[in-house]
Amino acid sequence: MKKSMTYKICTLVIGLTAILFTSCLSDGDDTMVLEKGEKNEFVDGDQTVVVGTNEYADIENGGFTLYIPKGSVPKTNSGDNGRVAFSISHVDISDLPCQLPTGARIVGRNSIKIEPMNFTFNSPLVLKCPTGGNTNYVLLRYNDYTNSWEVVPFSSRNADGTSNVSLIETGYFVLVEYPQQTTEMGGVRILQKYIDNEYFYYLTLTPVNGSSKDAKMIAFSPNGSPLYMAYVARGEYKAVLSRQKRSQLNSDTEMEQYSSVIRVKVTDKLIAGTGGYDTYTGWTDIKLDNISWNDGRSDAWGTITTTYGTGKFQATLTWVNPSEAEHTDYDLHLYGPDDLHVYYTNKKQGCFELDRDWITNPGNAVENIYSVSDNFTPGQYQVKVHHFDGVVGRRYNCRVIINGVVVKSVSGAIGTNKQFDDIYSFNVE
Predict the structure, then answer these.
(1) Which of 154, 160, 194, 309 is least enclosed, having the fewest CB within 10 Å?
(2) Which region is the signal sequence (predicted)?
């Protein structure tokens, strides 16, 4: 069920034109009015940060801070610098994709989604979480392939009561108190003597008997510090170590390398200490005495999501296709004045463009419609999602951004072939 909410009257500046923005959202009628008015003042909604391939940025919301290292944003399909609009939004517990594991308890408003959803980056991002020093806290990410919550291992426990994790994919995240899980899990460590001061190191673990649908567990270490990965379910894993020659997250990567697969067996329980991870015991150590390096990005991080474009208006549709045989073909549509209809057979019209038509390819599916100029024709516009073909009932996420503000972000599932879901409507006057 859609929720009723009201956005305050405010103003936006799109290009050189001042536009008055009002929005009243209610069940079955999400509308926005744009008309000429005063200068930009205030907009309700989650702010976005647009980051290019050669840029660094961070974005904060609700105690979580996402750091986007320079070079993490993939390039475009033509090899040019890409741009991605990031946002962090709070999610009500009732709107999460499925129930949390038994015994996991959310404390406070620690359920979020990081968008664009299900996006795979060139190299890992860093998320700082408000753990408050609680050793029973773990971060969970929803895996759309397995329809389950999976633990995201912490890389550090910080003096300010926060903890860091590494992410290669975005999505739903919840910070939970999970005592019985933390007392049964192990941890992996690479000692400082194996870490070069000039590099950032990333360790990626995948289960030996798992598949590409399993979560990619990643931990990182900067500039000569020991590398920790806590909490990891006990078992046997394939490990790949990557490293980037860089001094800071906001500096260029001079070199990128990865190792061959290392087998790791985690058997011991990780026992919390009184301080940082150097006070914990029970670590499984990885020794790197005879490691060899290959140049380039590791395949262990998964297939990069190619970027296309952003604009003052942008609608992004994402979902997951587990395989070609199990694919869902969703389509993003924009309707507007003068018979405007941007979709898969009419990818560019007026000042709007659709980047791609994702059909059967497996993986993290994504379609974007964005403005390529700011000369919006006056009239009513509508964003819709259409189920064209394939498996019905698969979850999707659709986010609409106007001038850097998330005015709508909704997850849904279309249960009937050829059906449309109405996502958002707005008027330009």
Answers:
(1) 160
(2) 1-28
